[in-house]
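Appendix C: a fully annotated inverse folding record. The material below is reproduced so that readers can follow the format used throughout the book. The structure is listed first as tokens, followed by the designed sequence.
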């Protein structure tokens, strides 16, 4: 039994075919194999009929049963013109291809050539330029076949011809020789202005030199190479004077003095052991300048004509309210930066009355009690008292004229109390009188501040303008007290609003508060006097600046207003402001009475 199996194995081994290259797929359309598996024997490879293998002659064979391929396309007709034959083929693939012998591998059929219309090559093109300018080169020419696709056999031969060009001698182009050694440096040190000595080396266009006929190109680049000798030491630099400076300030502010100019040894500065500049570094020159002239005030100009405060074109007479008049002066002779005139007003304004032809006999009333001492202690403490000059008739509008001008009072009609409440201190003052019958005239008085500090709570007081009392209530300006203003400004005849002219940063806050009070329903059309306080301080805003900052022009057209500069220190400007407020109140009442009559 053991011997039999050994013999069988030997027989199987003896009949095994040689190894072939096995593929995982045979493509019938192209008779090619794809997807190489490796080299195995043919029988093992063809256990799968879809596989293919490569034979020794390089052809690919299918492992499947014998099968015919599809017929190929018909070939071109064997003749270009007339009767001919065309062919088509097919192949058999698979194991035991002899099984395909029953079919034909080749088929033929008659055909007629259609290329009978003289189709063929076009004329040759001109020869192209030679491929090289010298030496051995070639040139080309071409032609085109104008036949149809099936008549390409009508164009035998090549479509392009090549021909050798005439041989010309090529020129020799120049080549550089090796660089020569560096020369010595052109100097022994480096100058301070940047002039550095140099060294050079050279080469020639001689390896080879360019040919003359035909002419060759020269060598590209420079024949000389220059290099700076930066390793040399710096040269010594002697100093040189720079330009003289402009003369300095004069030694005296005016008159004749001296001015000093200087120059520096820096053009160039001394360096590397060089010599310093010769000569002085400073010089003086005489200077002269005129001395400044301080300004001096001119004399006051005459008082301007008395005019109505709100209707400047109308003059004032006995039957009108009081007006204002101004006078000016100028700072003269100031020159060359001299001091300005002392800080005093350029103009003055006062209340005036045109009393020409108005003669009113007056008599002195009794003296009022003495005021309290101001200041309350010290060597300069003073007190004062007042007396009133009154007309001797009750009807202030009487046309009576007296032979002697005793007291120029404005005829304003019977006295009637005026009520004024405002967030300002109570003011008390009087208008000066002029009496000649019952004693000397009382000197003019200014309004004086009475009561408490203007910013602390509620004050009561009174002021007089044109001999009419102005009872008033003042409210402090603190923010916590502002809501109380409304309770004290109802049914008032006039408002007085005090601002700090020396504190421009709070003007916007003051503007908002003033407009809020003036635009309330109960204060529509009430005349407003703005007192620009602290005019005694340097840098304080002028009345016209305060007027603009508070935007008084934006108030209702029916609201009369005036801005008056004043100082609570000496009372300057207060009396004038109160009298203008008095005039505005009377003017408003006059307008209301005229409207009521209509």
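Designed amino acids, in order:
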């Amino acid at each position: 039994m053991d011997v039999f199996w050994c013999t069988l194995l030997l027989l199987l081994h003896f009949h095994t075919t040689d190894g072939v290259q096995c593929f995982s797929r045979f493509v019938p359309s192209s008779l090619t194999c794809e997807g190489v598996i490796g080299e195995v024997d043919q029988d093992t490879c063809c256990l799968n009929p879809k596989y293919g293998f490569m034979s020794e002659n390089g052809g690919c064979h299918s492992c499947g049963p014998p099968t015919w391929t599809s017929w190929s396309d018909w070939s071109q007709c064997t003749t270009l013109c007339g009767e001919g034959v065309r062919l088509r083929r097919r192949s058999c693939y698979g194991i035991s291809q002899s099984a395909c012998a029953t079919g034909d591998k080749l088929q033929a059929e008659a055909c007629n050539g259609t290329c009978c219309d003289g189709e063929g090559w076009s004329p040759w093109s001109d020869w192209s330029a030679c491929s090289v300018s010298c030496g051995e080169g070639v040139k080309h020419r071409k032609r085109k076949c104008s036949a149809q696709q099936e008549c390409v056999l009508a164009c035998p031969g090549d479509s392009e011809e090549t021909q050798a060009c005439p041989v010309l001698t090529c020129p020799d182009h120049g080549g550089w020789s090796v660089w020569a050694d560096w020369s010595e440096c052109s100097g022994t040190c480096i100058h301070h202005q940047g002039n550095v000595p140099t060294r050079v080396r050279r080469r020639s266009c001689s390896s080879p030199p360019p040919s003359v006929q035909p002419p060759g190109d020269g060598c590209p680049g420079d024949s000389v190479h220059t290099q700076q000798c930066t390793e040399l030491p710096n040269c010594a630099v002697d100093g040189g004077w720079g330009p003289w400076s402009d003369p300095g300030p004069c030694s005296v502010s005016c008159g004749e003095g001296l001015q000093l100019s200087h120059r520096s040894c820096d053009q160039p500065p001394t360096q590397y052991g060089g010599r310093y500049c010769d000569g002085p570094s400073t010089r003086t020159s005489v200077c002269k300048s005129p001395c400044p002239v301080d300004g001096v005030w001119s004399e006051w100009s005459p008082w301007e004509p008395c005019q109505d405060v709100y209707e400047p074109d109308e003059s004032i007479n006995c039957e009108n309210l009081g007006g204002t008049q101004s006078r000016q002066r100028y700072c003269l002779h100031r020159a060359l930066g001299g001091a300005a005139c002392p800080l005093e007003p350029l103009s003055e304004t006062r209340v005036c009355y045109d009393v020409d032809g108005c003669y009113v006999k007056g008599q002195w009333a009794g003296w009022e009690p003495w005021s309290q001492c101001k200041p309350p202690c010290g060597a300069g403490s003073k007190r004062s008292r007042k007396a009133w000059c009154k007309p001797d008739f009750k009807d202030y509008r009487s046309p009576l004229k007296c032979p002697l001008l005793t007291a120029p009072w404005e005829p304003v009609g019977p006295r009637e109390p005026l009520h004024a409440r405002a967030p300002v201190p109570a003011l008390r003052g009087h208008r000066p009188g002029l009496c000649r019958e019952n004693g000397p005239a009382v000197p003019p008085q200014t309004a004086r501040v009475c009561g408490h500090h203007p910013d602390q709570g509620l004050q009561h007081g009174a002021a007089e303008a044109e001999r009419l009392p102005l009872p008033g209530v003042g409210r402090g300006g603190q923010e916590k007290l502002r809501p109380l203003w409304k309770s004290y400004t109802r049914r008032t005849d006039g408002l007085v609003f005090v601002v700090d002219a020396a504190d421009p940063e709070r003007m916007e806050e003051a503007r908002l508060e003033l407009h809020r009070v003036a635009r309330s329903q109960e204060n529509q059309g009430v005349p407003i006097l703005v007192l620009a306080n602290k005019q005694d301080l340097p840098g304080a805003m002028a009345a016209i600046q305060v007027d603009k900052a508070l935007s008084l022009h934006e108030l209702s057209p029916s609201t009369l207003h005036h801005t008056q500069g004043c100082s609570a220190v000496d009372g300057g400007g207060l009396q004038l402001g109160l009298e203008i407020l008095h005039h505005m109140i009377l003017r408003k009442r006059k307008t209301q009475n005229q409207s009521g009559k209509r």
